[in-house]
């Protein structure tokens, strides 16, 4: 039996990564004109687009670069070739920019769902490349600002709180069998980024003095599964390596939840179900509980598959209606109860002989404000705000490492 973590986008937000809705807004606001309208002059600086559909370009980025170096300059023929490439890329970019800006979808997954057919496949592929670039850019910023404690602009926003991965690894490090704990735990993540693997890599190389190669081997032995695909291993594509020239390969291994449904590998789903059936404890963290995502890992309505496990779930930022929907789907009645509003205590104001009605009312309102503040502070203890403060991290992670 093992512990299973089901990880959503909320777990990466403290490290500077966008949620699905935030990513969609980023792509809507992206300055396509500035980046691509004059791409003929700057295409080599953005070669993650250069190899877009090589069967149409008839030349790869590396071939073009080698040709330019051999010539020692940009002659007329080479410039003409570059302009042809630019025209092809620009037509794809313009169509994509117009589509996404007019889209009524909330997330990138929903937007790309309507572009998975053959007619719009180029837009879908381009969208995935842009998503990959956004993720790698976020990784790069995360390394500078959050993970290594650099001088990034957003550093102070998060360093006042202990992040969940740091806290998790600190607790695991207190155990003599820390290796077994890490290798036996199953992580089912819906995130494309590798922040979990990167933090474990830093833990192994910095705290356990592992060589880089040994740390990579250890992580490969761990049970970390990116349900919808991911950027790639840290060995293949270093953390935050924006200019790696492998966007074509990255896009191919990124799948939306809708593609997973179309191309579902039942053996993969059965593997996840095996983990869940044998789980001693299941932790939902930073997860949005979209039914399609739950179904993709083998958790149908009523969640009978995890009935024998102890289940702990976060609900930060979710409305009471959403919490009710989730608790019903997962059959976790205590999940909703934990988030019910606490009753307001009765307020009694002792009226003195010289207290006027105005003074009485002021004293009543003062005590009422104090009572509401006390309720809020108590609710923070009971709501599972794992991604906000260290005390809430303890709520789940202590069960994981110490229970």
**Could you say which structural class the secondary elements and strand pairing correspond to?**
alpha/beta
Quick one: biggest sheet?
5 strands, parallel
Total of helices: 21
Helical proportion, percent range: 55-70%
Q: How big a fraction of the residues is strand?
A: 5-15%
Q: Please, how many domains? A: 1
Unreliable residue stretches = 152-161, 335-339, 379-394
Q: Order of strands side by side in the largest beta sheet?
A: 3-2-1-4-5
- Report the span from N to C terminus: 14 Å
Average pLDDT level? 77
Rg, please? Answer: 26 Å
* CA-based shape: globular
Count all strands and give the number.
5
Topology as a string of helices (H) and strands (E): EHHHHHHHHHHHEHHEHHHEHEHHHH
Structure characterization notes:
- This protein is of the alpha/beta class.
- The chain has 21 helices and 5 strands.
- Helix 6 (76-102) crosses helix 8 and helix 12 (195-207) packs across helix 13 (212-221).
- The longest helix is centred in the N-terminal third of the chain and has 27 residues, at 76-102.
- The model is unreliable at 152-161, 335-339 and 379-394 (pLDDT under 50).
């Amino acid at each position: 039996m093992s512990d299973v973590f089901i990880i959503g986008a909320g777990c990466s937000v403290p490290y500077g990564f966008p949620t699905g809705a935030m990513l969609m807004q980023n792509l809507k606001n992206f300055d396509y004109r500035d980046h691509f309208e004059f791409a003929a002059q700057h295409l080599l600086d953005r070669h993650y687009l250069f190899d877009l559909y090589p069967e149409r370009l008839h030349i790869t980025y590396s071939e073009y670069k080698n040709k330019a170096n051999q010539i020692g300059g940009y002659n007329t023929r080479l410039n003409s070739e570059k302009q042809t490439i630019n025209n092809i890329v620009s037509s794809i970019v313009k169509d994509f920019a117009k589509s996404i800006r007019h889209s009524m979808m909330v997330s990138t997954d929903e937007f790309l769902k309507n572009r998975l057919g053959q007619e719009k496949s180029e837009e879908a592929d381009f969208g995935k490349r842009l998503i990959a670039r956004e993720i790698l850019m976020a990784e790069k910023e995360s390394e500078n600002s959050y993970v290594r404690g650099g001088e990034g602009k957003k550093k102070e926003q998060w360093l006042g709180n202990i992040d969940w991965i740091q806290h998790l690894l600190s607790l695991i490090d207190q155990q003599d069998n820390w290796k077994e704990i890490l290798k036996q735990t199953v992580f089912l993540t819906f995130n494309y980024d590798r922040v979990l693997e990167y933090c474990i890599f830093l833990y192994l190389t910095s705290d356990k003095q592992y060589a880089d190669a040994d740390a990579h081997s250890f992580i490969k032995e761990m049970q970390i599964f990116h349900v919808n695909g991911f950027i790639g291993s840290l060995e293949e594509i270093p953390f935050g390596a924006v200019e790696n020239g492998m966007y074509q390969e990255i896009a191919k291994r990124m799948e939306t939840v809708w593609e997973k449904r179309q191309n579902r590998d039942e053996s993969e789903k059965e593997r996840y179900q095996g983990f869940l059936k044998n789980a001693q404890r299941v932790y939902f963290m930073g997860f949005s509980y979209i039914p399609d995502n739950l179904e993709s890992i083998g958790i149908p309505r009523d969640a009978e598959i995890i009935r024998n496990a102890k289940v702990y779930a976060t609900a930060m930022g979710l409305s009471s209606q959403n919490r009710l929907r989730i608790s019903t789907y997962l059959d976790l009645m205590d999940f909703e109860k934990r988030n019910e509003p606490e009753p307001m205590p009765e307020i009694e104001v002792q009226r003195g002989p010289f207290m006027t009605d105005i003074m009485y009312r002021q004293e009543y309102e003062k005590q009422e404000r104090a009572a509401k503040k006390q309720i809020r502070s108590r609710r923070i203890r009971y709501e599972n705000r794992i991604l906000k403060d260290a005390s809430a991290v303890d709520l789940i992670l202590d069960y994981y490492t110490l229970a």
